[in-house]
Amino acid sequence: VKVLIVDDSRFMRQHLRQLLERIGLSCEEAADGREALQILRSSAAFDFMLVDVNMPQMSGLECVKTLRDAGLHPSMKILMVTTEADNSFIRRALEYGVDEFLMKPFTTESLRGKLAMLGLAA
Amino acid sequence: MMATWTETEQLRDAVPRLQSAVAEAMTLHETSFFRDRKAFAVLRETILPRLIEANSVTRKLRIWSAAASTGQEAYSVAMLLCEDFPELADWDVRIIGTDISREVIEQATRGRYRRQEVNRGLPARTLVKYLERDEDEWQIAPKLMSTCEFLQADLTAPLPKLPLFDLVLLRNVLFHIPEQDRATVFRGVHQHMSPVGYLTLGASVQAEDSTDLFRAEFVQGCYFYRPARRP
């Protein structure tokens, strides 16, 4: 399983990469939505994307909408990982094509639980 | 000065009120929404359809979350019923949660959860459908609150007045109950179970050595227990 981690915080990308690699997932990183789209347009190999919301250049929400509208990687699962937590925001993210939602700060167990919901971990 | 463990146990035996407090302090309140997703899948696919068929005349369903902790198990069952069994909308459905700890029962009754609690086990679509954000917490929807009731109860002592239950969830707690008290727990559960009822102890827990009041039934890879005879 190949994962794209999209977050403008280098610390958060490293943290997520460590957690995901520990359970055998292979990771690449992007620092914002625009960079994520560039990577996804040039590669067909991603199964899963973890994406933050508030990032420079392009937000996570805009990135997901662009990706889904363009029909890129239609079977790729998307987990939005963010401090944003209003129900109205979560509903909008789900409408745009996000599959699951994890609020920051999160525990390793919470992340694993969300991966399991998406069929990516036991 | 802190008492040693032996001294604490002696006190527990000597002072009935302290007994309850010590038992409460020794009990783990580990829980989450939809804990053990496989168990909920078995409830959805097999156990609840069987119970709905068995109770189709009375149109009543009674479910007991017997070690309810802070309420996530009871509310998860309520969400499952709303989501997957719309035919129960006009049934008389009650979910009762009990726990030895007054503190967790008060929290369960409030139905309010913090970020770390809603992060665990709740799919996003379920979260936005059945909980409403209120500042830094999330509140269970009134529709679910009205189906669930929480009571303090010590399973190793005489139980409060309870109905006969069709489904009893006593998951992952048997290990925390002293061996000499387990027969009392099973007797209490048996007395409060409908003849058609099911008891689950959790995926990895078996009851054979502790009681002869139930017979085991293996359903979709999970053990369930059914009353072997009426008390």
Could you write a compact summary of the structure shown?
The complex is a heterodimer of chains A (122) and B (231). Chain A is α/β, with parallel strands linked by helices.
Walk me through the structure.
The complex is a heterodimer of chains A (122) and B (231). Chain A has helices spanning 10-22, 33-42, 60-69, 87-96, 108-117, and strands at 2-6, 26-30, 48-51, 77-82, 100-103. A 5-stranded parallel beta sheet of chain A has the order 2-1-3-4-5, with helices on both faces. Chain A contains 5 helices and 5 strands, in the order βαβαβαβαβα. The mean pLDDT of chain A is 94. With 122 residues, chain A is of the alpha/beta class. In chain A, helix 2 runs parallel beside helix 3 (60-69). Chain B is of the alpha/beta class and 231 residues long. Chain B contains 9 helices and 10 strands. Chain B has a 5-stranded parallel beta sheet, with helices on both faces. A 3-stranded antiparallel beta sheet of chain B has the order 3-5-4. A two-stranded antiparallel ribbon of chain B has the order 9-10. In chain B, helix 1 crosses helix 2 (16-26). Mean pLDDT of chain B is 87; it is low at 1-12 and 15-28. The chains are: A alpha/beta (122), B alpha/beta (231). The interface between A and B is medium-sized, with 20 and 16 residues.
